[in-house]
Amino acid sequence: MHQAGVDINSEDSGVGQEIEVDLRRHVAHHLADRRDLIVAATVATFPLSSGSRRLDADYCVRLGNLVTLLLCDAVIEGRLDSRGAGTSELSTVVAEREVSPEQLFMFVHLAMTTGIDELSLDQRVGANTEPWPQAAQIVRRAAFDLLAAWTTRSVYMPLRSSIEDALTTLHTRPVLDAVLPKECCRAERFEHWLSLMLIDIDDLSGINRAHGYDVGDRILERMGILLRTHFRQHDWVVRYAEDTIAVLLPETTPADALTLADRTRAMVEDRLTFRDYRTDQRVAVTVSVAVTSVRALEGEPIDHARFQAEAEAALDRAKVGNRVEQVELLPRLISIEEATERLGTTREGIESLVAGGQLEPVTAGRHVRFERAAIEALSAARRGPDSVS
Predict the structure, then answer these.
(1) Which entry of 135, 212, 231, 333 is 20 to 30 Å from 258 by CA?
(2) Euclidean distance between the first and final Cα of the chain, in Å?
């Protein structure tokens, strides 16, 4: 009898656990299905401004999608790992805009409340059903688990580690990866030049081998201090790789970027010298620099992956000769104004070339433009075979 009683209790316990697992899955799937509604309502309710901090709606939508997905994970698992990939991504996104704990807690609370409101309408576990109190409590607990996991990670792995390099105190590579596409879009919208500079410390590994790794670290530390104060406040100065620093320069023409590259190279060679205290030998520090500039017209977006790849290829060439290497990436199309300047004519002259079939206009958004190759071919033909381009 006693043995039978144990079996019955065990069976009841197993059935209860199975019911809870099924309930958790249903709640998580319901929240996931209504994620767009939950995010939209959360962002609409959340105050974008808090003191001196201002968050844009696009960023909050991205944060909302991530928070909702993490709530779903916490609902299903009954916990959230502070060391997991989801919590890590949340920490990175929060650090990107330096969202305060108060802002994040409010945001998660609003997402939780909105999620419960959506869940209350569900026919199976909604407000008029028997499982409702437990279903609502599962969502509340999931929000608590999410914030607890983020707080634990923040204590043991500070937020700034994801956006600030500990040695150079510059931004980290993920910051550039997040910023570059946005700056490319902005350059396209306003038809500005955008430049990317890559600064590589020559033979840093050799310096480390000859003089000790503490010298290499001191060079990187000093380099970070120098470059952070050398560029404008709205430029993005990033530790790009072990011995490479990147500087993203919005609204910077090729000529200005080249001047900056030459000045940066000279400044490093002039101010970054060290002495090996073991041998009293002077350690000279030089850099190779690549500077790549791109300009887009509205309707012709910048390929940020190609932009970055061209900069890296230019740096490889610069390192061969310890020099500055420059690359210009021009848009495929040319505006009417630029075409008249290239051809030394007027708008009426351009219209005549179009009417005569010598030029084919291209519609790009609200604008009429021409293929750069066609304009350059016409310009060369006008100069004649003996002209020098």
Answers:
(1) 333
(2) 102
In sequence order, which residues have a C-beta less than 8 Å from that of residue 84 and are 6 or more positions away?
A: 149
- Residues 6+ positions from 279 with CB-CB distance below 8 Å: none
CA atoms within 13 A on the CB side of 225: 7
Q: What is the dihedral sign for C-alpha 302, 304, 309, 315?
A: positive
- What's the DSSP call for residue 279? T
CATH of 173-329, one of 3.10.20.30, 3.30.70.270, 3.60.21.10, 1.20.272.10: 3.30.70.270
CB neighbourhood size of 245 (10 A): 27
Domain map of the chain by residue range?
2-161, 173-329, 333-383
- The fold adopted by the segment(s) 2-161 is Globin-like (1.10.490)
User: Could you read off the pLDDT of 306-319 as tens digits, one per residue?
Assistant: 899 999 999 999 99
pLDDT tens figures, 251-299: 999 999 999 999 999 999 998 887 776 777 787 899 999 999 998 776 6
Helices (H), the chain: 2-33, 35-45, 57-77, 85-96, 101-119, 132-156, 173-190, 204-211, 213-230, 254-271, 304-321, 336-343, 347-355, 372-383
- The token duo for 155 is 């204590």
206 token code pair? 């050799």
- Which token pair is 174? 């993920």
**Residue-wise DSSP of 162-192:** GTB-TTT-SBPHHHHHHHHHHHHHHHHHHT-
d(CA 174, CA 177): 5
